[in-house]
Design brief:
about 300 residues, alpha+beta, Chitinase A, domain 3, Thrombin, subunit H, Alpha-Beta Plaits, four-stranded antiparallel beta sheet, 6 helices, about 40% helix
Length: about 300
């Protein structure tokens, strides 16, 4: 390996103290569960790292430079090549009120307790003791003064600009990596963002780290981030559904017109038949009246004859 190489690797790490070994970190989820250090917020599995970027402890960086792909190594890292020796000057005394205020900013119901982590002046520390009016905070790294043991294997050395960019996104952002679309053309590296980025506040910080790492460890090129908001396909479906509705409305209107015409014709026929009936009744009445008048005249004549 060489400085600046991007690798994919896996490891297990122990604290070695008084002949005992205690697992404190691993990329193996099952091993983490077996040793009671599993963190549901951690993404387990092989990880990407840049060799010589001073993001790993000195002892591991040096061992990775000497390693070959596919071989397993077990190494012991002394404190000076790990997290350094403990510094007594980094153990500070603070007032109870100051620490309580800092803790209340994160959780109103929490109070200073031994073992609790606090951040003061951008420095992370751990509360060692709590006494009336005073709190002792240790700002040494939790692994300062510890000898460490690592078992590791380099699975692959990442090659190609597209693959390197993808590995950097995994390192610096670590979310929804498979949904980023990366294209390299000439002096441009175009990255179409995953939908996650559009609503994730942490992306605004991660993208600057990604640009910096691409220029330092991939190529000094223009980096373009592209946000795509695709048009909705539902509108097309709605339009297709509306068209047959219009046709059916026309058919229905035509049927209604035809029905109305038939009703009008029927009404006209009924009206004519009614008129005929009325006329027939009138004729019958007239003839009846005439016959009655005629019979009366005849009766009158007969009576006159009798007289």
């Amino acid at each position: 390996m060489e400085k600046g190489d991007i690798i994919k690797w896996e490891y297990d790490a122990w604290i070695v103290e008084e002949g005992k070994e205690e697992l404190f970190d691993t990329t193996n989820e099952e091993l983490a569960k077996e040793n009671g250090i599993h963190d549901p917020n951690v993404k387990y599995g092989p990880m990407y790292s840049i060799i010589g970027a001073e993001r790993l402890i000195k002892g591991i960086d040096e061992e990775l430079l000497k390693a070959e792909v596919g071989k397993e190594y077990v190494v012991t890292i002394l404190p000076e090549d790990a997290y350094g020796e403990r510094d007594p000057k980094l153990v500070k005394i603070h007032s109870y009120r100051e620490i309580a205020r800092k803790i209340a900013e994160r959780d109103k119901n929490a109070y200073p307790e031994p073992g609790m982590e606090v951040i003061i002046d951008n420095k992370r520390g751990k509360i060692v003791t709590v006494t009336p009016g005073r709190v002792v905070v240790d700002f040494n790294h939790p692994l300062a003064g510890k000898t460490l043991k690592y078992r590791f294997k380099i699975l692959e050395k990442v090659e190609g600009e597209v693959e390197k960019v993808k590995a950097i996104i995994e390192m610096d952002y670590g979310k929804d990596v498979d949904n980023f679309k990366i294209e390299v053309k000439g002096d441009d590296i175009s990255i179409e963002l995953a939908d996650t980025c559009k609503y994730d506040s942490s992306w605004s910080v991660a993208k600057y780290m990604i640009v910096s790492d691409i220029r330092d460890y991939v190529a000094n090129k223009n980096v373009k981030f592209i946000e795509v908001y695709k048009k909705k396909e539902e509108k097309k479906k709605e339009e297709k559904e509306e068209k047959p509705k219009k046709k059916s409305t026309k058919k229905a209107a035509k049927k209604e017109e035809e029905k109305a015409e038939e009703e009008e014709k029927t009404a006209e026929k009924e009206d004519k038949s009614e008129k005929k009936k009325t006329a027939a009744k009138k004729t019958t009445k007239k003839s009846t009246k005439k016959s009655e008048e005629k019979s009366k005249e005849e009766e009158t004549k007969e009576e006159e004859k009798k007289e």
